[in-house]
Amino acid sequence: MPGASNGRQNEARDGAVVRLDHVAKTYRIGAVAVRAVRGVSLSIAPRRFTMLIGPSGSGKTTLLNLIGCIDAPTTGTVTIAGQNVAKLSDNALSDFRARRVGFIFQNFSLIPVLTAYENVEYPLLLTGVSAQKRRQATLEMLEAVGLKDQRGQRPNELSGGQKQRVAIARALVKRPDIVLADEPTANLDSETGASVIALMRRMQTESHTTFIFASHDPHLISHADDTFTIRDGEIVASGAAA
Amino acid sequence: MIFKIAFRSIFRNTRRSMTTMLTIAIGTAATLVFGAYTVYVTYGLQTGTVDRVGHLTVYRNGYFDFGSGNPAIWGIPHYEAVLKLITTDPQLKPLIAVATPVQYLTGIASNSDNGESRTFIGTGFIPSDRDRMKHWDEYDVGGRGDDTGLRDDDSSRGIVGEGMARVLGLCGQLRLGNCPKLPTGAPSDTAAASDVANLPKQDFSDLVSRDAPATRKGPSLPRIDLLAATAGGAPNVVDLEIARADPQGVRELDDIYVGMHLNLAQQLVYGRGEHRATGIILQLHRTEDMPRVRARLAQLFKQHGLDLETRDFAEITPFYTQALNLFRSIFSFISIIIGIVVVFTVSNAMGMSVVERTDEIGTTRALGVRRSGIRSQFLVEGILLGAMGATAGVAIAFLVSYAINQQGITWTPPGQAQPVPLKLYMFGAWDMIGTIWALLIVLAAAAALLPANRAARLQIVDALRHV
After folding, report:
1. Chain A residue numbers touching B360 (CB-CB < 8 A)
2. How close A242 comes to chain B (CA, Å)?
3. What is the full DSSP assignment across B325-351?
4. DSSP strand pairing (B420-421 vs B410-411)
5. Cβ-based neighbour number of residue B158 at 10 Å
6. What is the longest distance spanned by two Cα atoms in chain B?
7. Are B238 and B102 in contact (CB under 8 A)?
8. Distances from the Cα of B361 to the Cαs of A127, A171, B285, B369, B389, in angstroms?
9. How far apart are alpha carbons A7 and B113 in whole angstroms?
10. A138, exposed or middle or buried, with CB in 10 Å at 0-12, 13-18, 19+?
C-alpha cells in the first residue's frame, strides 16, 4: 500500500524508496507566485509500478522533478533511497542521478547525434563502466526492448514508439533504483502507447526496479501497482491496484 | 563520447558550421599570408642591411655616439693588427664570412668640367670584400645588387649614388637613362663650384698628388675631385674616376654617396700619416651567431686592452628596426582584427547551438552530466571548430603562398634600390604557423566559453521545458 497524506498526515513506510515530507514547490512567474506542489508527503515502496494521476497542471511533473532530483523543493524534505537529497551539492546530485535515477521523457529526449546504441550506452559512460560491460549491457537492453537490429540508427530514423523504447532502454541500462516517466505515452498513438506501457511494465517486473510515471490518462490505472491522484498540487487520493 | 558528440553536433547545422569554419579558415589564411610576407620582409631587410653593413662593426669606443661628424679623428690605430686578432681567433674564425676594414669620410665632391659640386658622405672599402659581402644570402632572398665593379689593385676608381651623378652632371658620361634634364633658367652656383674646383691648386702641405689622366689606359671615365679635411684638420683633395653610378635606395643617401677604394679614402683622410680605419665590418655566416661573436669580441678587446666597441646592424641602421616594427605593428593590427572577427563568429555560432540544444542540455544534465561536463562539451565543440577552421586556413595559406611564389612577381623593398622577387615564406616559418594555428584555436575556445557557461548554468527543469 502506498502512503500518502497532505500536510501533516504522513504515513510513509519504512523501507520506502521515495519519501516526501511536507514538500512544497512554489514558482515565481514574474511577480506571481505559483504553488505547484502544496505540502505533499508520500512514500513509494520499492519495486512497484507507481502512477501519479492528475489533469494537466495538477503538479505531477513538478512532483516527478522533485523525486528525480532535477528540481529542489521550496520547503520539505525529499529522501530517495535513504538519501536526503537536499544535503547534496550540485555535483553530488548529478552523480546521484547518474547512478540511481532513470528518466523517460514525454518527448523521448534522445541525443539526436548519437545512434540508438550510443544513446543507451551513454548513462554507462557517465558511471565509468568498463567498455566490455558497457557493450554487453547495452546490447542486452536493446534486445530486451526489441531494437537490437536498429542499434545503428539515429533517433530521426526511428519511429515514435522505437524512440520511446530506446529511452526506456537508456533509463534501465544502468539498473537504477527508480525510473521516472513523465507522460511517456503522450506523444504516441494509443496502440503504440499501450505497447510502450506494456514494455515498461515487463521491464519493471524483470528488473525489479521502481517505476514512477505520471499520466493524465485514467485508462492506464489498470497497469499500476499503486496510484496517487494529484489535483492542484495536492494528493487527493492514493491506493493500490486491485 | 564528448568528442563524438561535439564532432557530430558541429555538422548538425552544416551551413552554420561551415560558415564559421570558413571565417576561421580565411582569417587564419589571411594572417598567415601576411605573416609569411612579414617574415619575407624581415629576411629581405636583414639581407639588404647585412649585405651593406655586415652583422657587426668594430669601432673605436665612442665613435658611434660622437664620431660620425669627424670620422677621421676616430680611426682605429693599427687596425690591421686588430683585424688579424679577430680573424685568427679560433672561436671567431669559423663564424665569420667576411672581416674587412672600412673608412668613412665626409667632404665636398666637385666636377671640374662643369663646376658642379656638393657635399658627400664617402665610404672607403676593399672592393673584393664588399663584393663578397653582397653575396650573403642566408635566407635565400635572392635578387641582390650587382658587384661594385671595382678592383682591389686599382684605387683610383669609385662609384657614386645616382643622385650624386645627377647633381654633378655625370648622367651623360655614365649613360644613366633616367636622369631628368636641368630646367632652363635654373639657378646656377658656378661661382661657388669654381671656388671648390680651384682648391686643389692651393698649396696645402698634406695634399696628395693627383692621378695623371694621361697615364691611364682604357675608355675614359668621368672624374670628380673629392675634398676633405684630414685628421690633422688640413684640407686634402683626391681625384676619383667614376666607374658607375649605383642607386642607393634612400634618396638622401643616393644624392650624397661616394664609394671608393679603402686606400684612396685613407689617402684623403690621413694623407701621408698613419692610415687608420673607421671600423672593421664583420659579416657572419649566420645571424644567430651575432650575440656569441659580440661577446667574444668584448672578451678579446678586454684581454688585449683595446679601447673598442662593437655595434650590430640594427643599431647602425635604425631604419631596419623601424621598418620591421612598422610591418610587425601592421601584422599585429591585422591579427587583432581577425581575432575579433573569429571570436564573434564562434561565439555567435556556439550561442545559437546552445539555444537550439537547450532540451538536450536538460536531458544530459538529468541523466547525470555535471555542469562542468556541459561546459566541457561546448568548449570542445568550440575547440574543434577552431581546429578544423585553422587547419583549413593553414592549407589555404600554403596554396596561396605557393601560387604567389610561382608568379615571379618582383618588388623593391623599402630602403633598397634593386627589385627583388616577392616570396611568401611559409615553408620554414613553422613557429609562426604553429603559433597562429594554436592562437586561433585558443580564441575559438575563449569565444565558446561564454555560451558554454550559459549552457552549464541552465536549470534542468527550465531546459527540459524549452521548446
Report:
1. 109, 111-112
2. 33
3. HHHHHHHHHHHHHHHHHHHHHHHHHHH
4. antiparallel
5. 27
6. 108
7. no
8. 18, 17, 61, 9, 25
9. 122
10. buried
Q: Which residue has the cell 564573434?
A: B344
At residue A64, the 3 state secondary structure works out as helix
Condensed to tens digits (0 to 9), the pLDDT of residues A100-144 reads 999 998 888 999 999 999 999 999 999 989 999 999 999 998 998
Predicted-complex ipTM score: 0.90
Q: Within 13 Å, how many C-alpha atoms sit on residue A149's CB side? A: 1
Residue pair A117/A125 in contact (Cβ under 8 Å)? The answer is: no
CA–CA dist B394, B386 (Å, integer): 12
**Beta carbons of B297 and B310 less than 8 angstroms apart:** yes
- Say how far apart CA B291 and CA A23 lie, in whole Å: 77
Q: Where does chain A have alpha helices with state H? A: 60-67, 90-100, 116-126, 131-144, 160-172, 190-207
Is residue B197 a contact partner of residue B112, using CB atoms and an 8 Å limit? Answer: yes
Nearest beta carbon to residue A125 from set B1, B359, B464: B1
Q: For cell 594572417, name the residue.
A: B31
Q: List pLDDT tens digits, range B164-180.
A: 988 888 888 888 777 77
Domain-wise residue ranges, chain B: 2-45+321-465, 62-306
Longest Cα–Cα distance of chain A, Å, equals 53
Rounded to the nearest integer, the mean pLDDT of chain B is 86
Nearest to B430 by CA among B386, B385, B378, B394: B394
What is the side-by-side strand order in the sheet with A75-80?
Answer: A3-6, A32-44, A18-29, A75-80, A83-84
Query: Class of the A47-72+88-240 domain?
Result: alpha beta
For residue B106, what is its C-alpha cell?
665626409
Choose the mutation target among A111, A135, A166 for the interface with B, i.e. most B CBs under 10 Å: A111
Cell readout for B328 is 610587425
Sign of the Cα torsion A142, A144, A150, A154 reads: negative
Q: Which site among B365, B367, B381 would you substitute to test the A interface, given the most A Cβ atoms closer than 10 Å to its Cβ?
A: B367
Q: Is B359 helix (H, G, I), strand (E, B) or coil?
A: helix
Burial class (CB in 10 A: 0-12, 13-18, 19+), A193: buried
- Interface size A-B, in CB pairs within 8 Å, comes to 68
Burial of A230 (0-12, 13-18, 19+ CB in 10 A): buried
* Range from A71-75, B30-34, B190-194, B291-295 carrying the lowest mean pLDDT: B190-194
Per the rule left: phi > 0, alpha: psi between -120 and 50, beta: everything else, B271 is left
DSSP designation for B466:
-
Amino acid at B112: S
* Domain ranges for chain A: 47-72+88-240
Element (H, E) at B450: helix B430-457
Report which of B329, B334, B330, B325 is spatially closest to residue B436, judged by C-alpha positions.
Answer: B334
